[in-house]
Amino acid sequence: MEGFDDAGLFFSDNFGDEQQSAGQVNLKAVKRKFKEFLRQFHEGNFNYKYRDALKRQYNLRQNWLEINIEDLASFDENLADKLYKQPTEHLPVFEEAAKEVADEITAPRPEGEEHMEDIQILLNSDAIPTSLRNVKSEQVSRLVKIPGIVVSASGIRAKAIQMSIQCRSCRTVVPNLPVRPGLDGYVLPRKCNTEQAGRPKCPLDPYFIMPDKCSCVDFQVLKLQELNDSIPQGEMPRHLQLYVDRYLCERVVPGNRVIILGVFSIKKVSKSKRGGGGKEKSIVGVRAPYMRVVGIQVDNGGAGKSITTSATPEDEDLFRRLAASPDIYERLAKSIAPSIFGSADIKKAITCLLFGGSRKRMPDGLTRRGDINMLLLGDPGTAKSQL
To answer: CA 192, CA 214: separation in Å to the nearest integer?
Structure first.
């Protein structure tokens, strides 16, 4: 299970070579099947769907490819099952296969573009989403599809995917150490294994990271809240932390209704040590869940959702007539949550909140923002959350 093998324990196994080589052979066979899928999969009109998509994405300078899991299952059901049950091992292999296929079908390339960039595989599925409350421990390290609302988003940060470390004492460099994706970090070795005659042993914890020799990617942390219609009566909504990286960053903003496809993962839980200067200590055997996202679908349909279609001249004429009507304020307020009786003043305040205000600069130099905030206080069961 993810996250339980990150302890600072390092050893050598002289009898594990056979098992490791067998695993490498298996991944090579899986990689070959992924390449066959990208090259050969076609739909009813005999267009090579993903091969053409790779060419199109390369011409657009977009180094990502969206894969439908049902397409993969129709091509090779066992391959899709492996990707569903072991995405952490097979998704990097899939991305390597996509990079090699893109390298083949775009050759020869112009001068200066000989190097092929890494390609991110984004997944989508037609499966029925699972409620956030129904995601349990047996689904750790598997692909899970859940709906929800994004309630917060962090800024863009950088995470190393490969890094080099150096010993402070003997200056030995250990290059290109792979770092797993997700919110778990990398545990530096506590001892230097370099042995030089005539030199004292290196002290404990000698390694430091060399930032200029690290390969990094962008990542963002989102907070997902379960949908209102799936919350049992009288209970608080539950939340789940989301990890998105590379081309999935800044795809959504707080307030978007989304359907997330990702790897249900776990990370270490830390607590502050009392009297220890505020240092955090990891709790052994306890892990907090989060989702490593591999696909996002933004839900723009349904009542109250935004639409992307442009307004027709008839719509613009209707908007102008509505704006000119003297009772437009009351009409808009009545259209907010019509299923909730009363609360006229609250609905008028929400109307002002939705439209916002204008930024004003007063004669004395004081600036008033146009942003409107609203605080609702009241007894339980008075539809505050629904409003």
So the answer is: 20
